[in-house]
Each structure stands twice: as structure tokens, then as C-alpha cells.
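Folded chain entry —
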Amino acid sequence: MADYSAYPVMVGAPLAMWGASLLDNGRRSSEALSMSAAWVGAAGGALVLKNTFKRVRPHIAHSWVQVRSGYPGTRHLDDSASMPSGHSAIATALATSLILQHPQWEVVAPATLWAVAVGTSRVWLGVHYPTDVLAGSLLGIAVGIVAHRITY
């Protein structure tokens, strides 16, 4: 389920923040801007690193690694774009942005669990190595912190 929630949350969370900003007469615009900047930075950073490393995905490099049956996502995967995990980078960047804005445990725990679940799902699906997920998560944390500092 974590992988299936990735795109809706990764697209919906920044949009929801902008919606909340509009409903709150712009008082939350820095939160929305921080989350959007984190998203763009993580996606852009992951794309640059994928093109730099050109690491072959595990299900391509190793015959014993099989993509989980029923996973439709392999249709659009670039075979040599494993490092870092873009899903992990964006999920962790959004979670980091949200956590820095709202450091209460009611936000920290589910945001962290969701980001970890998204990363874990990428390994479980057979489309990333654990180090791809770790690199994506570290990228996401860094980008989330930078986006927060720039926009607040």
C-alpha cells in the first residue's frame, strides 16, 4: 500500500498546503512554499544523480531479483536509473518539510513511518537496492532542511 499511496500523497500534500494557505488568507504560504520547494529540489536532485550514476536496477542486473507480480510501475522505469530512489527522495523531503513545520509527535510519527514505508516498498518491489533508498532518503532530508531554511 505504501507504494500505491506515494503518488497521491506526493502530489496531494503540496496542493493541500497551497489550499490551506488560500483558505487561511495566505498565512500558511511559507509552509506551502517550503513543501513545494522540497518536492522540486528532491525530484530535480534525484534526476541529476540518476543521470550521473546510471546504476542498473536490481531486477535488470540480477536474474534472481524479480519485480513483484502485479506491480505496474516497471513499464515506465528507466533500466539504468536506480541510484538514488526518487520515490524515497521526494517522500522524505515532504516528510522532512512537514516535520520541520509541525514538530509535534502526531505529525512526526506518521510522516516518518510513511516515508520509511515508501522507501521500503521500493526494495520489496525489486526496483531499488537498499543503498538507492538510503541515498534518496539522505537527499530528501537535506533538501527538506534547505527548503525549510530558505522559505522560513
Summary: The mean pLDDT is 93. The chain has one domain: 2-22+29-68+78-151. The chain is about 70% helix and 0% strand. The CA atoms of residues 67 and 126 lie 5 Å apart.
